[in-house]
Amino acid sequence: MKKNIREYFRNLKVAATLLVAVPILSGRYPVSGYAEEKTLRREFDLTQSVFYAQRNRKEVLLAQKEIEVSRERIKEAISFRYPKIDFGFNYSEVDKNKDYPAITATDLMILPPSFGSLIVPKTTRGQYYFMRFSLWQQLYSGGGFTSNLRLAEKNLTRAESQLKVVTNDINFGVAKSFYELRAIEEKLKQYEIIISTIEKFVPSSWDNPNRERLRAIDLFTKLKSEYLILQNEYRQKKLDFLNTLGLELNTDFVLKSEFKPTVQEFDLNKLAAWAFEYRQEPRQKLLQEEMDALGVKLSLSARSPTITLGAHYEYADENMNFSNRNWNTTLNFNVPIFDGWASGSRVRQKSLQLEQGQLRRKDIEDSIRLELRKSYNDYNFWLKELSEREKKYKQYGEMIESITDATLLMEVYVSRFQAGLDYISAVYEHLVCRASLEHAVGKPLTTE
């Protein structure tokens, strides 16, 4: 009996040997319970995942549409440089049964504003035609045209910057979801190996129970329960991953990627310089400050005089022979004198908004510094923790080879299995911290 128990725990060493390299190996592993359907599966690595997310996510599409809207606003601002040309034509039917001997002030009919506020003499018999071409051009508006154009250009730059902000956020979200899914796959493989090994030696009946058998049954039951819970979490994380990529939730896929740490040392000062060079949030606030300054100029332009040139050519008669023609040219000079101090209030509003923008920019800069330092500290912590957990995992492996006591062997074997899961978690945290560091900097941190 004791010989069989010892043989059982010696066989556990076979599984332990298989588990030695599992957390350290890289590659793609099929997960039990997910390969039943013989359907075509899509394969994603991290680069492809980011590509699909940037192509499908609504946040990116909305930012791209905002860029298109901003370009149209620039065209609208440029259009104010050109003259406005209008053409109008009116046909009126007048009462023929009334006779007016002379034209006085009461003998004129004024059409509603929607019809051009045209004047039709009551002496008209029957039809009355009116046709007009008009041209007007504002020659001077106190710098309003230039400020409007620059404001539209700044708005386009801000929209392009917002697209980069959205892309940076999406890249981090995709990387975090990708690594989370890969970590679960690695853990599931660990569970599959240990469960399949222990299952062979769990007694099918409760005859002649002893302490070792009971502990083996409890261990098997506990591991099986944890495995099923992890499987359910894997299904949920797959849905989250597809949602992050903007794909259909029934998409069948596998991940092809190495699950291993990327060891690289970074200089905090260099990262901080990169952050303020590549992060778009401070630049957005700076652009907003410039737009607020332009808003102040626009408000000041309301106090400036305006010069407008207009020309009109019109025809008005009871016949369509165009004999009664008339034209005029007008130069208008308008000087605002008093508006109830409204323009001054608008200027102060824009000045206060400019100060608000400066405070927001400082707040954004402080938050970026904080995010960068936290990510840097987490990255360095998990870099050291990786080494410690890998060392601990290997130490348990060395213990197994020298242990002869069956009870102690099982305890060490379970501890080694847990150390393997801890190492996988450390790899995940390390990779996520690296992605967080890239998000804080605003650019990929490629290895040299």
Description:
The protein has 448 residues and is an alpha+beta fold. It has 2 domains: 2-79 and 146-297 and 341-441, Outer membrane efflux proteins (OEP) (Up-down Bundle); 88-143 and 307-334, no CATH class. Helices cover 60% and strands 13% of the residues. The protein contains 9 helices and 8 strands. Helix 4 runs antiparallel to helix 7 (281-301). It is elongated and about 125 Å long. The protein starts with a helix and ends in a 7-residue tail after the last helix.
CATH architecture of the largest domain: Up-down Bundle
Total helical elements: 9
Could you name the CATH homologous superfamily of the largest domain? Outer membrane efflux proteins (OEP)
Order of secondary-structure elements: HEHHEEEEHHEHHEEHH
Work out the helicity level: 55-70%
Overall average pLDDT:
81
Measured distance between first and last alpha carbons: 59 Å
CATH topology of the largest domain: Outer membrane efflux proteins (OEP)
Q: How would you describe the oligomerization state of the chains in this entry?
A: single chain
Extended strand count: 8
Major β-sheet strand ordering: 2-5-7-8
Main beta sheet strand tally, sense and closure: 4 strands, antiparallel
Shape: elongated
In terms of structural class, how would the helical and strand content be classed?
alpha+beta
